[in-house]
Amino acid sequence: MAVPPEQVPEITKISLDRAGERNGVDVTLKSSSLSDNGPITSYDTERGASTLERIKTNFGDRPECFKNTFQEISFVFQATVATATTSFLAGVAMIITVPVSRDLGMTQGEIAWISASTSLVAGALQLGLGQLADLLGRKPMFITGMATFSAFALLVAFSQNPFWMLIVCGILGACSAMVVPPAIGILGAAYTTPSKRKNLAFSAFSAGNPLGFVFGTILCGIATQLSSWRAAFIMLCIIWAVFTVHAIWAVPNVENFDRAPLRERLVTLKQFDVVGTILTIFGTGMFTAGLTLGPDDGWSRPHVIALLVVGIALLIIFVLWQRIFPNPLMPPHIWKDRNFSLIIGVILLGTMSFTANQFWCAFYMQEVLQYSTLMVAVHLLPMAIAGLIWNIVAGHILHRVNNTIIMIGGALCYLAASILFSFVTPERSYWALMFPAFILNVAGADFQFNVANMYVMQSLPKHQQSLAGGIFNVVIRLGNTAVMGISTAVFSSVELTPEGLADPILKFTRTFQVSIAFAAASVLVSLFIRLGTQGNHPKEDGQEKSQSDKSTRVAVSAGESELEDKKQEP
What we know:
Blueprint: H1 8-23, H2 43-47, H3 51-59, H4 69-83, H5 85-95, H6 97-104, H7 108-136, H8 138-157, H9 162-190, H10 196-206, H11 208-226, H12 229-250, H13 262-265, H14 274-297, H15 302-322, H16 338-367, H17 373-397, H18 403-422, H19 434-458, H20 465-495, H21 498-502, H22 506-526, H23 538-568
């Protein structure tokens, strides 16, 4: 028997009720779901949402701590510059090696300490300052760090002897450690809801570490070529002074405590892990000092062995202390997360490959090819441009592509770049080997840093976001120092062999092969990571689920209607 169209909603409701009774399932459908114009209406039409509103919802809302979009963009850029502070300084130290050694009469060991002193102090203080930022205030520490970095950069420019320069470079490391944890903390606390907007913000922020080294090399290479190495630090002072003033307006007040006078907030210092801070300062400091001194002084020397052994012992005691202290610098529970531990391992190995490749390639261009600082900067420029492009790509695929694939892809980029660098010789074209290697090297860093930053920040609660940033950056700093010690030891040992004396390129080839080993290990570890996508907005997921449920209900109702219709036919 045919059923009049106007009776379809009623039959649908009855059939669904009967189906629910038979199957024990609550299946309901409002009659409004079938309209006169068609049996199915879209979710967005029912809600009266326009296309523009749907796009805005899926993209994500602007965090309430920002007054407008311009302030939001300004802060993200400011945070990117902040996280680039230490790597920017490393790029400067690498490009001024030759002129500063001539001007101040520095030995090869003292030159190595220009970059090592900064990384050593920054790595040692990251965790402690990260916890202090969460307890006392992120914005005040951020602005203080930017201002003091600018002031001491100017002081470096007037160095009259090696000791003056190395001591102040160490202070610059402390200043950079004051900047990075609060920048990450504010970013993580501001963007609490997963969204495409958060993905783009974190992709821009993640560019800081890899691109800081590149732009530090390029900008300060130009300044050194046009004037002197002192001009590079003066330029550094000016840039960070401008950003200090900019930070007063751009950085929002995103704290994990209510507004209160400083005297009252100092009470929270009772929660500060003083013992853990002391252990990390001396543990990481002595361990990295041993790694830095080993290549020049000899690994068998008593003071090098003592530094390494005591440093490792203090770090082991630190780990044990974190298990019993109620407010630890590095909460032990985060390492129980399998993906967290694997991601940190992959980032550590990948960063070591990236750092070694960049340093020895730039040194190769100065030592073997006899390029000026300006020419080195020009040859590194494609990497800066590619880095910006890769970050845009990463920000648009985090919520679409499985993040395990992105991590593996980044590790493969590191491996391919290291292999290309290992075949570099003066006779081979820059465009055939170095150019694609630069592009791949920065791609690996951009892809992995985007995924890792998002995951690490989600591993700790909102009130510990600065501490999360400190953990991430401690790993990077220790990795950078370790790989420079290892690769320098390989470089020095090959340089003095008969083969090394006969072939001046061999020592560089061996250092690039060290990078191949770290990159290959990064690929192997990344295969065990199990991630999905990151940054899908909850509303978007809810809409998709609702649309899927609605389609299922309508399909069931249609089938039940046809079954009822057949039963009523003679």
